[in-house]
Amino acid sequence: MDLSTLFSANVLLLSIFAISFLSMSFRVTPHGHWRSWALANAVLAAALVCFAFSRQLPIPAAYLVPNTLMLLAFGFHWHAARQLAHLPSKISGVIAPTIAYLLVASIAFQFSNYALAYTASNVIFTVLCITTIWAFASKSFEGLISAVGLILAFVFIAAEGVLRTAYGLITDGPIGPGMLSDTIQDVHLLCMLLFVSMTGAFSLAISFEQIAQRHKEAARRDPLTGTFNRREFQSRLDELLHTTPKDNFGLVHFDLDYFKRVNDQFGHVAGDQALVKICSSVKTHLRQDDCFARLGGEEFAVLLPDISRENAFKVADRLRERISDLRFDFAPDNFQITASAGIYHGDGSQLASTDLQHTVDKGLYQSKHDGRNRVTFAEPQANSA
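Structure (tokenized):
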């Protein structure tokens, strides 16, 4: 393919993606990363147009304009990646690499050192690619296939940046603003065409993949408290019961004592605030693999995998104490919410999940019968017999 065809193909593809991303920004929220991607593609298209007509530009402009636009475009790629990953990102981070290049290039041109300007642009370009890779490798994109595609795209183009940097250092780079030979430009433009195709396709995919992931996560959660819901809890319990070999686990059901009084005395908004605060406190005292769920109303359950009987009781009793120690803005200092709990410990052998939950509920009812604000062990009927 000749140079004009490669330039045209890149510019056309970049323009299509820029328009697509801009259109999506008006339809899908959050829209910040869509607009950053749109700007990245539009500015990169402008950079390639300037590269194509660099021979018609004055010597300083032939270097400064296209390279400045290219670095600005990759700055917007970096910005979009961090926005999508919910990492801190400011527009100053987009502009700073470009300003750094302009300062170095201005000094280089004063001494007619085109190699320095060429090398500086490629070093900054490579650093931008690496920092973008780091953003897409963050935990926010864990499990997303499209993130792997974007990482590969930026690894590919970063490797090309490293080669260009090496060329500038080893061979003293170009001797003038005409840059490189047509053959080397062909290679760069082919690499850019592949990069543009990959990033455009995977950028569209990753955003929707992330939306699907959020919907999937929301389906597992209680909308008020953010704890797992009954469906997720049941799934985790069934999985634990069917695991081979079986490990001992703890199952805790607890109920907030006289919680209806909170709604009656302080209102339902206060009741919701209390539930949120209680759940937030409970979650801080559980392990990462524990499953804490709201079963409904003021009823909760905690699944404690791979735990001893003694430690299961300690966890349940510690949660009970933490709940009773909480104080609430809507109530006087002496106001207290307590919890009663039932607990089962074992490997769940020969027990269906419904039998197991019925068993632990008996411990809960016994705690209420014995005066509330306590934890009671419950044994399956077959074991007690």
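Residues 182-218 form the longest helix (37 residues). The longest strand covers residues 249-256.
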